Known about the structure:
Blueprint: H1 10-36, H2 38-57, H3 62-89, H4 93-102, H5 104-120, H6 124-132, H7 138-141, H8 149-154, H9 158-171, E1 188-189, E2 195-196, H10 199-206, H11 217-220, H12 224-249, H13 258-267, H14 269-303, H15 311-339, H16 345-367
Antiparallel strand pairs: 1-2
Helix pairs in contact: 1-2, 1-3, 1-16, 2-3, 2-6, 3-4, 3-16, 4-14, 4-15, 5-13, 12-15, 12-16, 14-15, 15-16
Amino acid sequence: xxxxxxxxxxxxxxxxxxxxxxxxxxxxxxxxxxxxxxxxxxxxxxxxxxxxxxxxxxxxxxxxxxxxxxxxxxxxxxxxxxxxxxxxxxxxxxxxxxxxxxxxxxxxxxxxxxxxxxxxxxxxxxxxxxxxxxxxxxxxxxxxxxxxxxxxxxxxxxxxxxxxxxxxxxxxxxxxxxxxxxxxxxxxxxxxxxxxxxxxxxxxxxxxxxxxxxxxxxxxxxxxxxxxxxxxxxxxxxxxxxxxxxxxxxxxxxxxxxxxxxxxxxxxxxxxxxxxxxxxxxxxxxxxxxxxxxxxxxxxxxxxxxxxxxxxxxxxxxxxxxxxxxxxxxxxxxxxxxxxxxxxxxxxxxxxxxxxxxxxxxxxxxxx
Length: 368
């Protein structure tokens, strides 16, 4: 599209439009998943991601390309957050931390694989097709994966929830206690045989979820306590995204091979996620989040004062900064899935994700 000279600013703009799509998709698809199910959220997201990516590769002009990047961004974040919510809701309490963190590792591997593909596919159009077309394969998964048991229980669809739990128990050779499947039982069964009896879940099981109980973004700000928690998470994730995407966009300016830098700075996320898993329950959510946040922040701050001739030290500090901020991102998302009740968990996670994209929108221009 001839994005050179006086049109060079259109390059970062395309990335910002992608982030804007993520911002919009975070809330709209999150609300869709809360109203119609996690599987619907995944299905719609996969179609948006695949369609937007493939069409952007054959766009006849820059404006169509921007529109498709917007749709691709909406689909990518919708797919990620719907998958995270489904995974976290499908396990018992003791496995939530592990699940919320471990699901980030394939994300990092996918990012690194993009760098590997870029080494062999130098045409950007074919590269976009290579990384987005596989999203259509995910559509077949919707017929294989079960719906969230917690979401079904929140909707009063106990019959469907019971069938899923019985199937999971049969596949895993686990006998599900019959009292957990009782229509009058106030415990919410999970697929590992445990149960939860929090006040909000008891209310959800005892009453069908009427339309007037479907939560929206406004409900997150309705009470002082929820408003404070929501705003704090908004701030954390906005800063996380600004630093995270800023470091990723700046990988080509670190010196050395641009492809190697990109792949390494993505792979550094894997040990950061493993580290997050080990400190989450030991230091608590707030303690671990504060620690890795400060680690990433100070590493990035110090790298700005390194004199010329010490490029290796800048690279090391950048990697350490990415290590800390990736861990902070993962912990913040785990935290956000835990502080919102089932009935508007997707909207809550989506709202947090939406605010994080504000930082992502600014990152390309700062990095350039």
